[in-house]
Amino acid sequence: MTVLERPSLVILDRDGVINHDSDHYIKSKAEWLPIPGSLEAIAELTHQQIPVAIATNQRGITLGLYDLDDLNAMHEKMRDLLTPLGGEIVQLEYCTSGDNHHPDRKPNPGMLHKILTAQAIDPKTETVYFVGDKIADMEAGIRAGVTPILVTTGKGAREVEKLPQFSAKHNVPQPLCFESLEAFVSALLRSS
Asked: Residue 128: enclosing H or E segment and its boundaries?
């Protein structure tokens, strides 16, 4: 059995972790559809007094596929669906830049650093998980000094084969992999 430490914070990527993803981007409130069990998993963390934050690349805004009002509507829908379940997002960071050198655009760790600073959490002394479905998320997690977790929803299933290469490149253990956010939270709460 995988033993996971109780974290001070869980940070989530959005598309492919909380909601269904698309190679054509999620562009509207209507297209924003939760992955079964993901909102319940966030609510379960909230019930356990484990704060949940989100760090999401949203380059589609820069590409002109949707605008900030659309993005805000998606996040409002997510919160509206979470509220009756008792789930809460303590902080939500997004990066609209398409520039891979932008400090906030994953795989860069800027958004994670902002969350850690705002939540007054030091990953050197506290456990923090960053759950994503892409190698870029795993990179951002390592660079921010937090523990990356890969889920195979979204783009995760096709990223799994890249984990050994990622691990070798960064000289770190291979990130743990779960079939969904719900499976990760279930394993976390069983072991912590």
From this structure: strand 128-132
Count CA within 13 A, CB hemisphere, residue 22. 11
Q: How confident is the model at residue 1 (pLDDT cuts 50, 70, 90)?
A: low
Average pLDDT, the chain: 96
Say how far apart CA 179 and CA 165 lie, in whole Å: 20
Catalytic annotation, residues:
13, 15
Mean pLDDT of 72-78: 98
For every residue of 110-135, DSSP letters joined together read HHHHHHHHHTT--TTTS-EEEEESSH
Residues 92-138: tens digit of each pLDDT: 999 999 999 999 999 999 999 999 999 999 999 999 999 999 999 99
Question: What one-letter code names the amino acid at 89?
Answer: I
CA-CA distance, 60 to 170, in Å (whole number)? Answer: 29
SS3 71: helix
- Look at phi and psi of residue 176 and say left if phi exceeds 0, alpha if psi is from -120 to 50, else beta: beta
Backbone angles phi, psi at 98, to 5 degrees: -100, 0
Would you say 130 and 140 are in contact if contact means Cβ atoms under 8 Å apart? yes
> For residue 81, what is the DSSP state?
H
Q: What does each C-alpha distance from 125 to 33, 52, 146 come to in angstroms? A: 36, 18, 10
Q: What percent of the chain has pLDDT over 70?
A: 99
